[in-house]
Write a structure and sequence with these properties.
Trypsin Inhibitor V, Chain A, 24% helix, 321 residues, flat, alpha/beta, three-stranded mixed β-sheet
Length: 321
């Protein structure tokens, strides 16, 4: 305390605010420059977009050559897209235009115009009931065109026949030399979803197909798997047992004995003491006729498969056993 009491007191210097004021001045100047740059860019973009705009001239009533010259003077182009009948505009002159006169467009814009054909001088023919080809020849022979052709299925009516036309026959004050036609199309067969006949008797499936308008195709008989099985010599020797009557080196039948199929049981058995036909060298086995399908045969597969879309009159094939 004594040292502090004898030391001279220094006067505090005021805080220097000059650097902070300079920072705010620079930031404000930078913001002002950014705003000026944005305004300049927007102004330049506006001049670039709208500086080349011109007003569309009026072309209705002019000839195509005069309309092209008037449009070319403003940097525009003229395209004749359609031709219409007009009792007010002379033949060969512009009857309508798009865009409308006075519309602001950029240079190089395409002006779509329609040309007048003058008053209607051709009678609209009646082509209802004719074929599409005959109607087309009849229309084009009179200097007319076909605008569009629509098709519709009409049961009981032959295909490729004109049902209606627009404009109608002998119509007056027609706008354009074009005719729209409505033509009949071929009627598709009724569609079905193929059911599953697997596991059903062949006779039942055949009647169901005939009642639905389908046709029964090929019927094949599936090969039945062999019912009998023999054991190999190794298995027979491993068992350690030999049935009575079995000679050495001959494989024994497995136990229980295999079931005899109905087909094999129908064959005559050889007399006791006589060798079987297969045991005699050179003697062929008796030929067995291939099995034939019957109405009681069970269906094991079908074509088309179940769930597929088919039309009436389709052919269905079966495999039975």
């Amino acid at each position: 305390m004594g040292l502090l009491a004898g030391a001279p007191l220094r006067e505090a210097k005021p805080y220097n605010r000059i650097p902070m004021k300079s920072f705010f001045r620079v930031a404000l100047l930078a913001l002002l420059l950014v705003i000026v740059a944005l305004v300049s860019a927007l102004t330049a973009m506006r001049f670039a977009i709208h500086g080349q705009e011109v007003a569309v001239p009026a072309l209705v009533g002019l000839t195509p050559a005069d309309a092209e010259r008037a449009a070319a003077a403003l940097g525009l182009q003229v395209q004749i897209e359609r031709q219409y009948y007009s009792a007010q505009i002379p033949e060969g002159r512009i009857t309508s235009q798009l865009p409308m006169p006075g519309t602001k467009v950029r240079r190089g814009w395409d002006l779509r115009v329609a040309q007048s054909l003058g008053p209607q001088r051709v009678a609209i023919p009646d082509v209802a009931g004719e074929s599409e080809r005959a109607a087309e020849l009849n229309i084009r022979r009179r200097g007319l065109d076909i605008s569009s052709i629509a098709q519709m299925q009409m049961p009981g009516t032959p295909a490729d026949q004109v049902l209606a036309q627009s404009p109608p026959a002998n119509a007056s004050q027609v706008a354009a030399p074009k005719i729209n036609l409505l033509v009949t199309a071929a009627v598709d067969g009724q569609a079905y979803v193929m059911p599953s006949f697997i596991g059903q008797p062949l006779g039942t499936a055949s009647r169901a197909l005939q009642d639905s308008g389908f046709k029964l195709g090929n019927i094949s008989v599936a090969q039945a798997p062999a019912n009998g099985a023999t054991t190999s010599p190794a298995n027979s020797s491993a068992s350690g047992a030999n049935p009575a009557g079995a000679t050495a080196g001959t494989p024994a039948l497995s136990t229980p004995a295999p079931a005899i199929s109905a087909q094999s049981s129908s064959l005559p058995s050889p007399a006791p003491g006589n060798a079987s036909p297969s045991a005699v060298p050179g003697m062929p086995l008796p030929s067995v006729p291939p099995p034939q399908p019957t109405p009681a045969s069970i269906i094991v597969s079908q074509t088309p498969a179940a769930g597929q879309k088919v039309v009436a009159g389709a052919i269905v094939n079966f495999e039975v056993r």
